Amino acid sequence: MNTPTADRFAWQGHYDQRMAAAWERDGYLVLDGFVSPEDVARMRARADSLIEDFDIEAHRVVFSAKGQSHAASDYFMKSAANISFFLEEEAVDEDGRLLKDKGRAINKIGHALHDLDPVFADISHNADFEALSRGIGMADPLLLQSMVICKQPYIGGEVNTHQDSTFIYTEPETCTGFWLALEDATIENGCMWAAPGGHKAGLRQRFVRDGDGMNMITLEEGALPECTTPLPARAGTLVLLHGRLPHLSAPNRSASSRYAYAVHYVDGTARYAAENWLQRPDDMPLKGF
Ligand SMILES: O=C(O)CCC(=O)C(=O)O
Question: Does any domain span residue 152?
Fold first, then answer.
């Protein structure tokens, strides 16, 4: 069977009718040339320098026992309002000792780069992001969380099929993912895959606070629609993801990394759930444009 291909659009600074029709039909949009090569290079270099400056030894306890400890859960919760580093599962042993060079061990950096890092803040708040978020109908687009996802060569971890509204729930649902390739993402190095039209399915699960930890609760039984369509993306391409769209990325067993920058938005007119994992401190309100 042939692998389906996604529609693609060349971004020219504004959202148009053809994009609107594809967004409504598929629940995703692939927008080539959304960010200039210069801005891609700035973000890519900045991610490397953040990793270079990160003192991994100081966080040994966080990374030991494969992230199951209280320290790991606390580190994760606090990352809502800082710049934290998370390791590829295959990059450390049980004691948190690195099995790879630091530069090839980080799985992701998050979750407040868009507010705290000057390079990521500058680009995340540019006119293109504003035009697109308003184009799809957000009345008060707010940037909630940001991540650099590294998908390291050979050990880049898979991201299982999920709907982003599971993790970022608002009423009504407004979570929208802005996923930007910082390197060419291919089937070989773990590009995104999606279920076209799958955003019309119900929300299956919610990830909710439960004491100091988190719990996954089922809202609707049944498997999510299958992610049949790969979304390969040249560096600078943006993939827009509806909060209910089932999507995944496969492990990276290739020799090339697959850096991406993902920002998740919510609409400030919706009620943000107090049970979501990500809660920002009162002195760090969400910003829009
Ligand atoms: O970059 C990836 O591999 C997964 C990203 C993702 O699932 C998301 O941003 O919602």
Answer: yes
